[in-house]
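To illustrate the input format used throughout this study, we show a single complete record. The first block contains the structure-token representation of the backbone; no residue identities are included at this stage. The design step must infer an amino acid for every position from geometry alone.
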């Protein structure tokens, strides 16, 4: 299904952070990013046209699975996107946005696999290297990544240590506010999911995000893991996790943000 590679709706997205994605009119633009988070959240989702993504409720009763709807893995991490020109050259003065990057893996050869292949080549050096990203099909966010030899964030640390410290502090604040799982796999109750499957609910409410968030609580109470599966680009999309990810699997996902320290350590 084509839905495996779409990014779905933004209705569950809070106003506090932006998504890294290409708009329809950005097909000729190159964006420049650095992966600043080694942790990749992973969950299984169902997709319903019009409504969007829903977290699969297995191992509890899942109405979407019961109805034979396929589920797919969906991933999320954080990137720092630089202010650039159309060619992806970093603007002066230095500027950036911390964004949520949410993606699938297509038929097993999608964005996750592409990024994993870079991890295989570069290891943790992947996180101290910029990537130029272009998009040949905004509708499906078909992305191409070109690794760079340089890292503008690293360069900033050398040239302007105080500015780097400001970026780091700002980054840490922003990531603590980001609940990426809400975008990767928006939680719905079995009751709501059943209505979506039945076609009784065709669109996610975007007006009352608070009640919707509240409705997620019973799902957790029914035994849904409160800590999402944690992966990394080293994880192969399976159940294995890297040492760094495994060490935070106990629930401190949002606190294990060592990448900025790694950049510092590289220098
Ligand atoms: Zn399911």
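Output of the design step:
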């Amino acid at each position: 299904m084509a839905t495996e590679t779409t990014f779905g709706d933004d209705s569950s997205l809070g106003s506090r952070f932006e998504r890294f994605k290409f708009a329809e009119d950005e097909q000729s633009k190159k964006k420049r990013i650095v992966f600043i988070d080694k942790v990749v959240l992973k969950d299984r989702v169902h997709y319903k046209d019009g409504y969007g993504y829903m977290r699969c409720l297995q191992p509890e009763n899942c109405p979407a699975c019961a109805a034979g709807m396929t589920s797919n893995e969906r991933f999320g991490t954080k990137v720092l996107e630089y202010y650039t020109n159309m060619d992806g050259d970093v603007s002066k003065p230095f500027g950036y946005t911390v964004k949520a990057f949410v993606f699938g893996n297509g038929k097993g050869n999608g964005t996750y696999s592409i990024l994993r292949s870079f991890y295989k080549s570069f290891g943790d050096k992947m996180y101290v290297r910029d990537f130029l990203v272009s998009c040949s099909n905004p509708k499906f966010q078909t992305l191409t990544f070109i690794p760079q030899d340089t890292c503008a964030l690293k360069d900033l640390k050398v040239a302007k240590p105080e500015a780097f410290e400001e970026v780091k502090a700002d980054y840490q604040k922003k990531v603590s506010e980001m609940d990426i799982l809400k975008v990767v796999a928006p939680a719905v109750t079995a009751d709501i999911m059943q209505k979506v499957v039945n076609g009784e609910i065709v669109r996610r409410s975007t007006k009352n995000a608070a009640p919707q968030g509240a409705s997620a609580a019973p799902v957790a109470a029914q035994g849904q893991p409160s800590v999402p599966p944690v992966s990394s680009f080293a994880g192969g999309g399976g159940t294995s996790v890297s040492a760094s990810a495994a060490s935070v699997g106990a629930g401190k996902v949002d606190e294990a943000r060592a990448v900025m320290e790694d950049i510092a350590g590289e220098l």
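Structural context for interpreting the output: The longest helix spans residues 161-177. The chain has one domain: 2-259.
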